[in-house]
Write a structure and sequence with these properties.
single chain, four-stranded antiparallel β-sheet, 3 helices, disordered N terminus
Length: 207
């Protein structure tokens, strides 16, 4: 009877310690009080009752991705505009003077070179273009690009053959720009021109 009462008294003391937030005596085995750390881990661990649900984790990931995309767009659009600039906007026509029409003699194509500054986004490039002005009567003119329509090699006028010759692959064009021989698939490209006060002007940037 003595031992039984001692056991009950020990159990009562242990219960009182647990209720007051204390820890069990060092020699008590097993410990009747649960560990406070174990209680915290059970509530906030990966498998705890307060862990975010899979649906909530997906929503948070989606919102994080949207925020990252918005920041990237806010930073990238100004940079893209800086580099691209007005590359996709239509450019106003520019006319450059070749020279006096009187300098072009009938049946003698005259080579002219024009240079101009071409705006490409934020960059400025100096472009160079060569054209041939041709007339058969001194009144009506045609202006051809000197670029072969085969692979883009520069052509030249040959007086002995009375034709435009491409030295790369043997293309031959007549004075009217038509293909006479070789691999070029189409005639020489005509360049728009106009007459102003006796001078020939060409529209650049089309060839």
């Amino acid at each position: 009877m003595v031992f039984g009462e001692s056991g009950r008294e020990g159990g009562d003391r242990a219960s009182d310690l647990c209720a007051s937030g204390g820890e069990s005596p060092p020699n008590t085995n097993p410990s009747p009080c649960p560990s406070p750390r174990a209680g915290r881990g059970a509530g906030w661990g990966l498998g705890g009752a307060n862990a975010p649900s899979p649906a909530r984790r997906r929503l948070l990931g989606y919102l994080s991705g949207l925020l990252s995309a918005a920041i990237a767009a806010a930073l990238g659009l100004p940079l893209a505009r800086l580099y691209v600039g007005n590359a996709f906007k239509p450019r106003a026509a520019r006319w450059l003077r070749l020279g006096p029409a009187a300098s072009v003699h009938p049946n003698q194509p005259a080579l002219f070179t024009v240079s101009y500054v071409d705006q490409d986004g934020w960059r400025e490039n100096t472009a160079r273009q060569e054209v041939y002005a041709v007339t058969q009567n001194g009144k009506d003119f045609v202006v051809f690009s000197n670029v072969c329509t085969h692979l883009g090699c520069p052509i030249h006028w040959d007086d002995t053959r009375a034709a435009f010759i491409c030295p790369c692959h043997g293309g031959v064009f007549g004075m009217n720009g038509q293909v006479l021989h070789g691999p070029p698939p189409r005639p020489l490209t005509q360049v728009r021109y106009r007459m102003e006060n006796g001078d020939i002007y060409v529209q650049v940037g089309e060839v």
